[in-house]
Amino acid sequence: MTYDQLCNLYAQSITLKILRARSAPMMLSFFHQTFKEKNHTTIPNVELVTRLSDYLVATGYRATDDEIDATGLLDNEDERARKYVEQWSNKGFLRKYPDDDGNDIHELSSDMEKVMHWVSTLQKREFVGTESRFKDIFSKLKELVDQSNKDPKQRIQELEKKKFEIEQEIKSITITGRVQVFDDTQIKERCYDVNRMSRELLSDFKEVEQNFEQITQEIYRKQSERDIAKGALLAYTLDSFEALRQKDQGKSFYSFWQFLMDETKQEEMRALIEKLYNLLEERNIDYKNDRFLKKLKQFLHASGKKVIDANKKLSDKLSRVLSEKNLTDHRKAMELINDIRQLAFQTLDNIPGEEFYIDMESDPEIDMLDRWEMADDKKTHPDVEFPKGIGGNDFSDADMDALFNHFNIDRALLEDRISTQLQNKKQISLKELVDIYGTEKGLTELITYFSIASQSSSHIILETPDPVSLGNRVINMPMVLFTNAQN
To answer: Which InterPro entries is this protein grouped with (predicted)?
Structure first.
């Protein structure tokens, strides 16, 4: 890195601004106690201010006049805490956004996560594991080479080698009756690594989410430019959205999210974590009552969903760009129609001469959907062709009635069905609910399910197609997952 690059980095990097802040020791210790020790990812604004006020009293910390407004030095702790939280949010040390009820909540920014992780590495640890990390490195190197080799013969040789090793281990256990297991040190070492990597994974989500938000902000900025064409803005939005999805970071996240939404994998992870804690207690291994891993799935789901929501925000912005374009075209069309209407009224008192008319050799052919009765030869409209297995050509009254003519929807009944199914499951899809209960109210009932999912932070709507049966039709709809946030 050059001198100029470092100067620019020191001037713009939020991470370095955190380290250089006078209140950094107080700020980092408070965040560690509030977020890390208590395993919180988000905290309401009111609760955070109250906790900071108590922390300022307990530590006796006094602000300097360059930290918060000099006029606020005589304020009480509650007011000082409020100003600190507001200042940290404005500087990017904390993130602030409204929840589903409109109340402000806070979480650590990606820059703050980096600082706290780096500072934690500076402290001397009582236990530093090297054996498990080396084996992890060795295992990843071997996996990287093996899974990248396209030679079938070499791949078969590797699999045969693994097969031989497994067979030898089975023979050894059968003969001796003993199983080689990890000792307490090896268990403790690997448990520490799993815990560390899990916390780092949650921090990584914030960078992915921040990338989506940066693109959204750039779209807003470009939209505010007066001379930018709607087509150029739309092209930039589509290109940015696709580029983010196709980048390594985007591909990795969506693969992870698909894995996390797999109910079988969720149950397997839950069982593994439960067995790990049972093992620690059976061996009397001290893990300082750190139950972070027990809530790992909940944390991963909450953090991952914010990335999905940021993605959805980007899609919504794209939809608004398209809507604004349509509104502009509609407004122009209405202006043209009004101009034509005004010209028509003007000709009422001044009928144009014959030179303004056109003689046609035959009668005009009229084929307008909304003026069909005006035509002498009424042409039947062609049948609508649907893809194979989707839709159909049955337009009987009974079929249409099954689709649309049911507007009295019992929303509470649908919510009760969802709750009933989630008592024994971590999640259930709309398709599964339809398979179980059917669709008594037709298309309107499906829309109500969508409304329930969109108005709750516990449920997810994905862009992945998930066809749903509706009578004798198949409706190609986005995937809707109803989840139990308590599990």
So the answer is: DUF3375
Kindly give, in sequence order, each residue whose CB lies less than 8 Å from that of residue 444, ignoring residues fewer than 6 positions away: 404, 406, 407, 409
Q: What are the start-end ranges of the H helices in 177-260?
A: 184-223, 230-246, 248-260
Contact present, 202 and 300 (Cβ < 8 Å): yes
Record the pTM.
Answer: 0.48
Same domain, 176 and 211: no
**352 and 405 housed in the same domain:** no
Burial 125-164 (b: 16+ CB within 10 A, else e): eeeebeebeeeeeeeeeeeeeeeeeeeeeeeeebeeeeee
**CA gap 341, 272 in Å, rounded:** 74
> Does 478 lie in the same domain as 401?
yes
CATH of the domain at 64: 1.10.10
Going by pLDDT thresholds of 50, 70 and 90, the confidence category of residue 330 is low
C-alpha separations of 425 from 176, 419, 486 in Å: 42, 10, 11
Instruction: Give 438-463 pLDDT, tens digit per residue.
Output: 877 777 788 888 888 877 767 787 76
What is the percentage of the chain residues whose pLDDT exceeds 70? 71
Distance CA 266, CA 339 (A): 63
Question: Would you state the pLDDT for residue 30?
Answer: 93
Domain total in the chain: 4
Same domain as 312, residue 236? yes
Please check whether residue 377 lies inside any domain of the structure. no
Are residue 342 and residue 214 in the same domain, yes or no?
yes
Angle at 435 between CA 429 and CA 441, to 5 degrees: 95
Q: Is 368 among the domain residues?
A: no
Contact 429, 466 (CB under 8 A): yes
Mean pLDDT value across the chain: 76
410 in Cβ contact with 447 (< 8 Å): no
217 shares its domain with 341: yes
Instruction: Tell me, yes or no, whether 200 and 302 share the same domain.
Output: yes
pLDDT at residue number 271: 84
> Which helix (H) or strand (E) element contains residue 306?
helix 296-348
CA distance 421 to 430: 11
Tokens of 336: 């043209």
Of residues 97 and 231, more confidently modeled? 97
- pLDDT computed for residue 85 by the predictor: 92
Using the predicted structure, report yes or no on whether residue 31 has a pLDDT greater than 90: yes
Short-list 271, 278, 309, CA closest to 426 = 271
Q: Which amino acid is at 318?
A: L
Query: Which one is predicted more confidently, 9 or 204?
Result: 9
Q: What residue numbers bound the domain in which 7 lies?
A: 3-122
pLDDT for 191 equals: 82
Same domain for 335 and 199:
yes
In a domain, 390, yes or no: no
**Structure token pair of residue 146:** 């093996």
Q: Report yes or no on 376 lying in a domain.
A: no
